[in-house]
Write a structure and sequence with these properties.
With 177 residues, the protein is mostly helical. It folds into 2 domains: 19-71, no CATH class; 74-159, no CATH class. It contains 10 helices and no strands. It has helices at residues 7-10, 21-31, 41-53, 57-70, 75-83, 87-99, 101-104, 117-131, 141-157, 167-171. The chain is elongated and about 65 Å long. The protein starts with 6 loop residues before the first helix and ends in a 6-residue tail after the last helix. It comes from Symbiodinium pilosum. This is BTB domain-containing protein.
Length: 177
């Protein structure tokens, strides 16, 4: 852009509509090899957006690592990761969701959004099981959006299955009739 015959190379300024000067300065500093510009949640977030737009993969990967270590594993985090192609971060959020369905069920509504629907397919059987429903195929995504409040309430209210591991030892204490 600056070394070509484009109008930017002839001008003393470059217009970046919709961009913030402070973000541009941080983006530029982050591109410097010797820069140790510390990341924050705010800067990592906008730097992912800038690095995605300007195809700076190394910076994007650095920000993804920072987000994986410092950002909450929640619905907005998953949506952001999917939108900007942060595959490790996407997997991290989905794994957190799968491991603690009731804790994350309210955040999982983002799985019904257009960009995250493909990930709902993997989690659907776990949600159904946790809600205490019989196994069923997943309804179309457009139906899932309207069903979500009911499904999430079932997951929250679902009684925990009893733990029978200790019962075997107890049953041996009683004589058989």
């Amino acid at each position: 852009m600056l070394s070509s015959t484009m109008k930017e190379s002839m001008s003393t300024s470059i217009q970046l509509p919709g961009k913030c000067k402070a973000e541009l300065e941080t983006f530029y500093k982050s591109l410097q090899l010797c820069s140790m510009e510390p990341l924050t949640l705010k800067s990592a977030t906008f730097l992912v957006q800038w690095s995605d737009e300007y195809q700076v993969d190394a910076l994007k990967a650095k920000c993804e690592q920072f987000l994986m270590s410092n950002a909450p594993k929640d619905g907005p985090g998953l949506q952001f990761a999917v939108k900007y192609g942060l595959q490790k971060r996407t997997k991290q959020c989905l794994d957190a969701f799968k491991s603690r369905i009731p804790e994350h069920i309210s955040d999982m509504h983002v799985l019904t959004s257009q960009e995250c629907q493909e990930h709902l397919i993997d989690i659907w059987p776990l949600i159904v099981r946790h809600a205490g429903l019989p196994q069923m195929s997943m309804p179309p995504a457009e139906h899932m959006r309207s069903m979500w409040p009911f499904v999430s309430n079932l997951c929250i209210a679902a009684p925990r299955p009893p733990n029978f591991k200790g019962c075997r030892g107890l049953s041996q204490m009683f004589p058989a009739s």
